[in-house]
């Protein structure tokens, strides 16, 4: 009969240990984030860390709107910039799974007049090895930045620029390639990129707070974007989201991005064979391997392989890290391009990874 008090004591100790562990996590991660997001009267950010699907950290810092003096919450919606490329890559693989295209198809199969389109493949576009000119590096960009551009107009904007290198010769991060991919998604599916992503990814994964970016429509819990000048903060530069298009025009929340990661893990959107294509390293023409799959950088955290990608668009920065072996996912968003969540997010992943190995 003496077992009951002993059992209760052990249970109490276990719960106390778990609580202490959670508090240690929280203190470590708090101190890490506060180095960059410590001012409560500035634009801020939201961070989420999970392990094996369980949320171990979820907090927001600073202001979602400076003019209205609104505090940031973990529910706020951010522009995610180049993390959009993950969705574009998966959309392409979904179309391949449906038999509507092949990643080894030449671009000319879909865009007849694309210069050297018979030599550039969808695979080259996905892996940033196409050599086509990155439109973000073109001086003429300012002339179209606020114009409403159809995907075909965007492709026409850069397609006749001299190439930087032959397809497959080197890896060089390239936004233009992902704009071409978005146009191909529209041509093959018969849907707009926005509708395709919404119906085939957001709705299937239950991402009810994710959107194709807009400055016109009302977005509940939108975080407003800012730049920092010498004299203080200003509202973000206005651009037409039809310009970054499928290379950087989506919006989401930290919780929805977790749903995205879980949908990929559970093969909810792609079968295992197609999913594998996104997360394997590929080789250049000379046989040299590079550290990018389809829409993700494939690197490591303290020697443990991870999948990661960041984003930067006027007024916002984002970063996501996933460690497959430990099922650790960390996502960080900022609503000022003066505060980068990149290293903080990677360092949070290190803390969670190290704690699991003790």
From TrEMBL:
Keywords: Hydrolase, Signal. One of its GO terms (molecular function) is hydrolase activity. Pfam families: Beta-lactamase. It is an enzyme of class 3 (hydrolase). Residues 1-22 form the signal peptide. Its EC number is 3.-.-.-. InterPro entries: AmpC-like, Beta-lactam-related, Beta-lactam/transpept-like. Residues 40-338 form the Beta-lactamase-related domain. This is Serine hydrolase domain-containing protein. It comes from Chryseobacterium kwangjuense.
């Amino acid at each position: 009969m003496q077992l009951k008090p002993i059992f209760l004591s052990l249970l109490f100790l276990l719960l106390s240990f778990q609580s202490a562990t959670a508090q240690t996590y929280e203190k470590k991660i708090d101190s890490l984030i506060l180095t960059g997001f410590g001012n409560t009267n500035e634009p801020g950010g939201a961070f989420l860390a999970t392990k094996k699907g369980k949320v171990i950290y979820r907090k927001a810092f600073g202001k979602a709107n400076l003019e209205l003096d609104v505090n940031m919450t973990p529910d706020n919606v951010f522009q995610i910039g180049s993390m959009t490329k993950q969705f574009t890559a998966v959309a392409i693989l979904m179309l391949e799974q449906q038999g509507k295209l092949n990643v080894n198809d030449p671009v000319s199969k879909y865009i007849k007049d694309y210069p050297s389109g018979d030599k550039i493949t969808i695979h080259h576009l996905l892996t940033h090895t196409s050599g086509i000119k990155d439109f973000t590096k073109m001086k003429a960009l300012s002339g179209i930045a606020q114009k409403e551009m159809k995907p075909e107009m965007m492709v026409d904007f850069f397609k006749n620029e001299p190439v930087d290198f032959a397809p497959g010769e080197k890896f060089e991060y390239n936004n233009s390639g992902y704009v071409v991919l978005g146009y191909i998604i529209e041509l093959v599916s018969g849907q707009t990129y926005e509708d395709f992503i919404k119906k085939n990814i957001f709705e299937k994964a239950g991402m009810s707070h994710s959107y194709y970016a807009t400055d016109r429509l009302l977005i509940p819990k939108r975080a407003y974007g800012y730049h920092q000048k010498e004299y203080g903060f200003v509202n973000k530069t206005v651009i037409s989201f039809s310009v970054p298009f499928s290379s950087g025009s989506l919006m989401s929340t930290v919780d929805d991005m977790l749903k995205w990661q879980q949908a990929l893990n559970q093969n909810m959107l792609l079968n295992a064979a197609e999913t594998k294509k996104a997360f394997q390293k590929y080789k250049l023409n000379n046989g040299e391997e590079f550290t990018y799959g389809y829409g993700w950088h494939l690197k490591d955290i303290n020697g443990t392989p991870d999948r990661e990608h960041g984003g930067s668009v006027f007024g916002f920065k984002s970063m996501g890290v996933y460690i497959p072996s430990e099922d650790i996912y960390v996502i960080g968003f900022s609503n000022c391009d003066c505060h980068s969540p990149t290293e903080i997010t990677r360092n949070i992943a290190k803390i969670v990874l190290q704690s699991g190995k003790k």
